[in-house]
Amino acid sequence: QVQLVESGGGLVQPGGSLRLSCVTSGFTFSDAALSWYRQAPGKPREFVARIYAQNISPTYGDFAKGRFTISRDNDKNTMNLQMDDLKPEDTALYYCVKTIGNYRGQGTQVTVSS
Question: Widest CA span of the chain, in angstroms?
């Protein structure tokens, strides 16, 4: 059974940082491409970043380039998203997705506010 569990969200001031994690189980993590998406109330889902199984450079949504960094730890079956210089418009529910099969977690809320 594929499971993805996100953590690390919270309330942060503009300009601050957060590190999200997605702990997975039920599949061969090292073979999987994984993504982060986000969704704010009343807005469509938005692609944040994707990391691949092989030595291919990650891809990012335009708003994430230069501020967010996606990474993976194959020993811990975990994917991370380091988010720096956060802005109020980054406020959303962030969730991880296993690309093949379109499995997703419940998400972790990120709120950027002063």
Answer: 41
